[in-house]
Amino acid sequence: MEKSVFLEDLDAFAYREALASGEAIVLIPVGSLEQHGPHLPLGTDTILSSYFAEGVARRLGAMVAQPIAYGYKSQQKSGGGNHLPGTVSLDGATLIGVARNLVKSFLNQGVRHVVFINGHFENYQFLYEGIDLALDELGIAPGAKQSVLLLSYWDFVSQDTLTQVYPEGFPGWDIEHGGVLETSLMLHLEPARVAMGRLVDGPAAVLPRFDRLPVVPERTPATGCLSSAAGSSAAKGAVLYGQVVEDLAADLASELVREPTPAAVPA
Fold first, then answer.
1. Catalytic residue annotation
2. pLDDT score at 261
3. Is the C-alpha dihedral spanning 237, 243, 246, 248 positive or negative?
4. What pTM did the predictor assign?
5. 51/33 Cα distance (integer angstroms)
């Protein structure tokens, strides 16, 4: 049976042994509880970031912490909006505090590198602020051996992969919410959680180039999705997952690991 990479499955003494190497890497998936239309579960962002963290951890010999399963407020132009039922959010100060405390705890215990793998667009700058505050409080300055990395998994999707997944042309990241990318990944990784029979095909959202507060609810499509997931498939999800894990693991190995340990990407 394949050994678990998740911290929740380790006992304290096994974790202590991992820290003793002085090279321990902990990956923290970050997602949200957010509506993703009628065909995807509310936990989609957390599910996907956790799978990417697992795939990368197996290649690097790293460990995966429990995810941050709530995210910053969904915005109308990227997630449909915080006004939609099913979206339960944290304010910025809370998310900053969670990131700050996790960084301080792991680095104080002797973890060499912490990597946040983000799966919810709106989280990014609040995670950045929490990391920056923690490093300042710990006195970890430029050039230190310990470090924290922050990334969003979609930034590792290659142009070649986009061409395969969107043969008629990629519509753009700004409307990829509940669309082909997330749906295909879920069909590959957690098909039982996808209700393709409930998928609603329709035109992509047309939103202004500004944010208006409070939001104008009718500007968000009735489905809550910003683009159609028609054309999604498990095969496309396999291409996306395999390519992102491979490239992400290679980048992290180059940045953090002295002697990377290759391993097969889990299906």
1. 34, 36, 45, 120, 122, 177, 182
2. 47
3. negative
4. 0.94
5. 16
